[in-house]
Structures are given as C-alpha cells and as structure tokens.
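Name: Purine catabolism regulatory protein
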Amino acid sequence: MITVRELIQVGGFDESSVLAGADSLENELLNVTSFDSPDGHRWLRSGEFVLTTGFPFLSQQKTCTKQLITLIDELVAIGTPGLAIKLGRYIEDLPEAVLSHATKKAFPILSFPMDKAWSDVIVPVVQYINDKQRIELDRTHAIYERFHHFLTGGAPISTLTDLLSDILAAPVSIHVPQHKWKWDSSFGSFPRDDSLDKRYGQRAPIRLIQEPLSRQKEGIHVRWLIHNQIVQGTIIIGQRERDLYAWEKVAIEQSAALLSLEMQRQRAIQETFQRFRNDFLQQLVSGQIFSHEMLMRKADEVGWELSDHYIAMLLSTSPHDKTGMELWQENHHFLNALHSFFSSNGTILYGLDQENRVLLLVPKSILASTESLSQWLQEQCLKTFTKQLDQPVFAGIGRYHPEREGIVRSYREALVSLQTALHSASPANAASFRVKSYHDLGLERIMYAVDPATEAQAFAEECLGKIQSYDREKNGQLLQTLQVFLQADGNYAEAARRLYVHKNTIKYRIQLIREWTGLNAENGHDQMLLRIAITAHVIGHRL
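Structure predicted for Purine catabolism regulatory protein:
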C-alpha cells in the first residue's frame, strides 16, 4: 500500500499536476487502473487509483459538471483514493465547481501529461508497490523471527519493552496493574497519560474490543490488553508523526500475544494457589482445624500470616434468574477483581467458601467496629467492583467474637446477613450493592438461623439482659412492665390498670426500654421481636 504522494513521485508527475485535493495526498492506494466508459467505475475495487482520458465525462461534446460531481461521489463511496485525467484530449479544463467538490471530498485529482502512456505510470507504480510489499514481508518475517527467539530464549517478560522499543525505534511502556507490571524501555521517555489508568479493571467498550490498538493525543499509540472483556493493562508506544506501518503493528500484536500468554500463566498459578487458600478458609470457618500447630502450618503453606481476631464477611452477586454455574462464574470473576484490591494488604484473608460465595476474613484490628466495617466495605470495595461487574453485589457481615474459635460463629452470622441482603432485593429494583450487618438484624437472624430456637434464646439474652441489669441495679420493674404492655397489645391505659400505676409511668418505662435495647415497643416490627425475646426468655428458663 502506498500514498497518492508516492504515486506522484514514482509515476513521474510533478507537484503542479495536482488540480484538487492537495491536502489529501496521503490517501492510500493498492493498485492503479484505467477506464474510459461511462459506467466503467462500476467494476472498480476499493483502493484502485484511476487513470482516464475524461471521455466518460462528456455530454454532447461538452463537459458535464453535474455528471462529474456525481462520479466523484460514487468513486469516494467505492473507496477510490483519487484519479488522474488527460486534459486536452477530450476536456480542456475541469470546472471550478468540480475541483472544489473534489477538495471538499478529500479526493485528489491529477493532470495526466499528454505525452505519457498509461504504462508509464502503471508499470513503475505496480513494481514499486510489489517492492514495498516484499520489504514489508521481509520485515514482518524478521519480526516473527525475533519474537520466536525471545520466546524460546527464556528472556524475562519484563525485557519485552526493550525488544519492542528496538524494533519500533520509540520508547515503550507496559503497565498491567493486576500483576504489578510497570516496565519502561531504556529508549527515552514520553509524557504519561494518567487518564489511561482509569480504564484498568473496567469493562471494555465494544469499540475497544474490536480495535484494541488506537492512536491517542500527541501521536502516542496504545494497545489495550483485554481479557474476558475487562481491561487488564496497556502497551504504550511513544510519539509518531504518522500512522503505524503494517510491520510495526505486527510487532505490537506479537508483544500483546506474549503478554497475554504470560498473564494466562500467572492466572493459572494464581487460581491453583487460590484453591489451596479456599480449602484453608473452609477449614477455618467450619472449625475443622483443632491444633494450633496445624493451623500455623497450613497458614504458612498458603502464605498467610494470621491475626488473633477476625470478622467474617460474605459477598455474592444477585441470584435472580441465575444458574449455579453462572453464579460461580460471576463470583469467581468478582474474586479476581478483589485479588488486585487486596493483594497489597496481606492481613485480609479472601477466597471462595464451599458454596462459591466470596469470603473475607477481616482482622478486627483494621477497624474499630462492625459499623465502620460496613461503611468501609461500601465505600472502598463495592462501589469500585459493581462498576467492573456491571451487576448488583450483596454482602453480609458477621459480628466480632474473640479468638479464632469466634471465626466459625462470625461466619454463620455473615451467612444469615447475606441471605437477608439477597432476599430483601427484588429483580426489578436491585441496588448496585446492598450490605447487611448482623448486629442490625432482628427477626431475620432468627428466621435464617441454623437453630432458630437457640438463636432466639441468644437474642433474648442480648435484648433483655440489659433490662434485667437495670432492674437489679435500680430495683426497677422494666421487664415486668414490658411483659404486661405486650400482653395488653401495646395499650398504655390497660397496662397501667393491670400494674396499678399511672399511664405516664408506663410511657416512661417503655421509653427506658427503647433506650436500653434500641427497640421501640410501639412499633409493630420491634414489638414482634420483643415478643420473641420474652417468649424465648420465659420458655428457656423453664426448660
């Protein structure tokens, strides 16, 4: 492929022969042909430069301006890069309207000298194209050879920047954040575009998948590295005043292929290693590891340094209209996204549990409370990853329980919290993320518990224990008042009559109960929870 400018030089034209489209001489052509029939352009192929006497443009021995303009439009639509016309044979001059229209359409028109034969242009141009293609093939073959030696020679992948830089004679940079690759060639430097960083880890638009190599501002070219429609990284090539040649694109694509192979290898290693971590996490949350020595040995095998106390968190994508395999794929992809986020923080343990939900064990030392943990999860994690996944993400957070034995209990609480978050969302109105913390749950923690009766008894102790402590310390009657108030279906007057006190006394005591437990006995939902707590307390003490 050559340009119209090269055709002018090789075909023996001079600069004065350019009649129109002087700013479009970089149009590329594949071949040169001629036609002299009114409908000859119907058999042209895209990329063929046209030679003509101008005879098809005559109408009753006069130049037809309208017909010429129509022909130019049809040639542009075909992909013709330009034409050369023998002025003086049939047409003395082209109308100004035609030349203006050709310039507007970026369609070069040349004046073909009368003393030249078609072959005087066609033969040297075709030979020049063939020579240029031969050079392109030789260069391309040499590039394949260099990359073959690079691949078989065992050179570190980080030296790929210098190889590509040497071939292109331009600075090169490779950046893949997930694998912590940030390599620059030794061949000079170029301005860094921080806007590229915003795309890493994001879903690639269709145009980027179809054309991963693009020219950016200041002549910098970027080859996007994409896997599973997610932007993994970039190859950045320094400034070019022109478009890339075919052999240069081959070198860039070869580099992208080698990087893709290395990323696949790294992912395979990472996934194998992650399976061992998943098994270890499952043993932790199920309480299968009993001895301290075994725990430390297994933690060392997977490269984790354990903390003394953890809070469990479970995350999953929306289950609505999803098969088990689809959920596994989405959660596995979610885990990969989390890997780049948590790999720099060795204190957080992460993986998939037995049901392929994303499991996080967060050291209690990171945050002061589970409330701040919920806020941290929403602000730091889910807002970022829901953009990548383009779908809702749900999370459940357990409470802190001391020692490593508390991990089992915290995990079970996280599971109940996650189930609550999942069931509280409808397919039609699912938020981008939804977090439920166990300490905020009421009825749900009992409904979804493995042993509802035991959970109800624990809930009763948490709620009523504060009331009983107040009664002992203040010689109060809060627990009795609560029981009577509930028996009276929340009627202050009836409760006061049964306890032989003023109605305002009942109101005061109910307000104290609200302050101590956080539950409003006048509210239907909270009243039901208090009824469960009272029932579990009474029955639990009698059994």
